[in-house]
Amino acid sequence: MKDRSTDMTVGNPVKHILLFSIPALIGNIFQQIYNLTDTIIVGRFVGAEALAAVGATFSITFLFFALCNGISSGGGIIVSQYYGAHDNDNVKRTIVNTGFIMLIVPILFGSIGFVLAPYLLQLLSTPESIIAASTMYVRFMCVGLLFTSLYNFFTAVLRALGDSKTPLYFLIISTIINVIFDVTFVYFFNLGIKGVALATVIAQFISALSCGLYAYTKNPVFRIEKEFFTISSKIVAKIIKLGVPMSLQFGLIAISSMAVQRIVNSYGTVVVAAFAATNRIEQFVHMPYTTLGMSLSTYCGQNFGAKKYDRVYTGYKKGLVMMAILSCVLLLVMQFFGGAITSLFVSEKEVIELGMMGLKLTSLFYFTLGMIYVVRGVLTGTGDAFFALFNGVVEVIGRFTIPIILTSYLGMGPKGIWLSAGIVWAVSGVTAWLRYYFHFHRRYVGSNISFIEPSEQPALFHKKAAAHN
User: Fold this and answer.
1) What is the model's pTM?
2) Angle at the Cα of 21 (from 16 to 25), degrees rounded to 5?
3) pLDDT at 374
4) Across the chain, what does the average pLDDT equal?
5) 404 C-beta neighbours (distance < 10 Å), count
6) Which of 247 and 458 is assigned the larger pLDDT?
7) CB neighbours of residue 451 within 10 Å
8) What is the pLDDT of residue 117?
């Protein structure tokens, strides 16, 4: 494999965004396959109680992963800005300093999670019958947190350099390894949940090691000289300033999701099943928005670092157009085929009808959902540390209040759960756009002429000189 870094400060913005998005989207699909593998193998080969034990750990493990991944994402954004400015020395310093942090933070949070696992599960009212198995699974994930964080660190830096293909290759490898070890440990060695957890940790370790070795051998940016292996308080401050709000945003969303789930649980098995099915479907709906936002983050980060602010604005406009087209397609799919899609996950007629109703409601708000991802990509790429936390707080407040208002005070019942999700997206989308307009658009757009590529500038200079003479 060769160095696949891409300089996005020159060339066609749409081409850069699309070429970056496609491998990232495939990677997200494989990530879902990775997650589904454990669910299917545990459910089919171990049993429903074991499946419940693994499922009960999701919010806790997601919280710890999110707290670590925010830091690596923040470091990746800073790398993209320095790379766009062609400041390779600070690119290397940022990689080193982010790496130092990504060694400390996962060990710290992993240790906390390992010790507190049973108490956190009790706090979530986990049934006594599965709490021992759930505790064991959480503790395995806490041990693997370091490997997962290092893998995410390497992929965040590679994406910041415009390379979305290499992370895809290693994600595919990791998924295959995870499936092989899952089947081996669970089906052949009868290790149950312990086998699934062990397979995940091994896959994470191999992915982190192989991705790191690839980055070092194939990408010259990772071959870092001794002089750069120093702590830079300036760069560490930048990483923390951008990464901590992103971590807190992810953490707040995880907590608010737990609050919504409590409301869902109060309506009984049918509503819980329908909500679980639509949640699984909307995980796939989020994927193209996620990859578009990720692409814009890298694209805007590089161009912001190069002070090509009008190219950032161009990326934002093109991103909106792509998002609008995508939203229209997804809206039509859910309006006409929502029931058929829901039936892929459940067979009960009542659950399918409720899930279809939920998808028809939420799909009306897909444009505002897409707006969140587009604006988030642009603003995180430009280093807006405040936005991530602010947007997370807005979403949390909405998730805690709107479902209660609609289901209890307005008497909408289960219908209010899905409608509240759409309203939260709408509120978050509008506030995101307002932040973009007042923070970036009014300050930067029109402040330079960056539609002219460097290769075109000499010719333009000669034309102007000839006209002047």
Assistant:
1) 0.77
2) 170
3) 94
4) 84
5) 16
6) 247
7) 12
8) 93
What is the distance of C-alpha 243 from the center of its chain? 13
How far apart CA 9 and CA 452 sit, in angstroms, is 11
Given this model, what pLDDT does residue 36 score? 67
Q: Is the dihedral of CA 115, 117, 123, 129 positive or negative?
A: negative
**Whole-number Å distance between alpha carbons of 385 and 389:** 7
Give me the half-sphere count of Cα atoms (radius 13 Å) on the Cβ side of residue 404.
9
- CB of 379 closer than 8 Å to CB of 312: no
| Structural tokens at position 236 | 């560490």
Q: What amino acid is encoded at 164 in this protein?
A: S
Integer Cα distance of 146 and 466 in angstroms: 61
Instruction: Flag whether pLDDT at 456 surpasses 70.
Output: no
Q: Which residue has the tokens 């307002």?
A: 434
Average pLDDT, stretch 443-460?
Answer: 48
pLDDT tens, position by position, 339-353: 998 887 667 888 889
Mean pLDDT of the 19-28 span: 84
Do residues 451 and 422 make contact, with C-beta atoms less than 8 angstroms apart?
no
CA 349 to chain centre: 33
d(Cα 25, Cα 156) in Å, to the nearest integer?
15
| Per-residue H/E/C for the chain | CCCCCCCCCCCCHHHHHHHHHHHHHHHHHHHHHHHHHHHHHHHHHHCHHHHHHHHCCHHHHHHHHHHHHHHHHHHHHHHHHHHHCCCHHHHHHHHHHHHHHHHHHHHHHHHHHHHHHHHHHHHCCCCHHHHHHHHHHHHHHHHHHHHHHHHHHHHHHHHHCCCCHHHHHHHHHHHHHHHHHHHHHHHHCCCHHHHHHHHHHHHHHHHHHHHHHHHHHHCHHHCCCHHHCCCCHHHHHHHHHHHHHHHHHHHHHHHHHHHHHHHHHCCCHHHHHHHHHHHHHHHHHHHHHHHHHHHHHHHHHHHHHCCCHHHHHHHHHHHHHHHHHHHHHHHHHHHHHHHHHHCCCCCCHHHHHHHHHHHHHHHCCHHHHHHHHHHHHHHHHCCCHHHHHHHHHHHHHHHHHHHHHHHHHCCCCCHHHHHHHHHHHHHHHHHHHHHHHHHHHHHHCCCCCCCCCHHHHHHHHHHHHHHHC
Q: Which amino acid is at 73?
A: S
pLDDT of 272 > 90? The answer is no
Of the listed ranges 10-14, 48-52, 293-297, the one predicted with least confidence = 48-52
End-to-end CA distance of the chain, in Å?
52
